[in-house]
Amino acid sequence: MGKVVATRAGAKGKSAARSPSAARPSRVEAEAAVRTLIRWAGDDPRRQGLAGTPGRVARAYEEWFSGYTEDPRAYLSRTFDEVAGYDEMVVLRDITFESHCEHHLAPIIGRAHIGYLPRHRVVGISKLARLVDVYARRLQIQEKMTAEIASCLEGVLKPFGVGVVIEAVHQCMTTRGVHKTGVTMVTSQMLGVFRKREATRQEFLSAIRLRGPGES
Ligand SMILES: [Zn+2]
Predict the structure, then answer these.
(1) CA of 171 to the centre of ligand 1 (A)
(2) Residue 66 C-alpha to ligand 1 middle, in angstroms?
(3) Of 196, 50, 41, 173, the residue nearest 117 (C-alpha)
(4) Alpha helices in the chain (DSSP H)
(5) Arithmetic mean of pLDDT, 67-72
(6) pLDDT (tens digit, 9 = 90+) per residue, 11-33?
(7) Phi and psi at residue 184, in whole multiples of 5°?
(8) How far apart are CA 120 and CA 142, in angstroms?
(9) Maximum CA extent, the chain
(10) Where are the alpha helices (DSSP H) in 104-207?
(11) Is residue 172 among the annotated active site residues?
(12) Which of 32, 67, 124, 204 could form a disulfide with 163 if both were Cys (CB 3.0 to 4.6 A apart)?
């Protein structure tokens, strides 16, 4: 099993810069576009088996891309300030997600691992999982999604540091192009003490059972 490791620990976190300028097409227009793609694939959208497909695809898009209508910061805003003296790292491991690559609209299936060292505020774990979904349910590249999650957590919780690692399989790579199955892409974004302090980063990586480059 090959493993492409693209560590982006040094990359600067950028938040989403989504353009709201593109007017949303109507449902009728969306379904017509699906019919066009069916014809492009070589089939006849009028045949019985495909008659309901444009409507189904439009509804599937509403679910796959529901992240555009949600504000990730709102999910985190109800934080639990009372930490009762808890000052150790919080790690949520193996948050599964499904996303779509912005280059091919192909599925990206993966897991996210999130850690942070709280300063005053902690957040419910279900909120962290929802945060991953909000960003996953948009057209993505894995590097950007990793940075967006880290940057959002840092901005809202103001912790001492944040670490986000994402492992994912890109179906644009497994089902087309180079056709390499079993290749996992790993990206990471470390902010604050996760970036500055080796021991903190290692504590996080061992909690999620990954090791830094060169470490045994
Ligand atoms: Zn792709």
Answers:
(1) 7
(2) 19
(3) 196
(4) 27-41, 53-64, 72-77, 125-136, 142-157, 171-174, 193-196, 198-207
(5) 92
(6) 443 444 455 557 899 999 999 99
(7) -110, 135
(8) 30
(9) 65
(10) 125-136, 142-157, 171-174, 193-196, 198-207
(11) yes
(12) 204
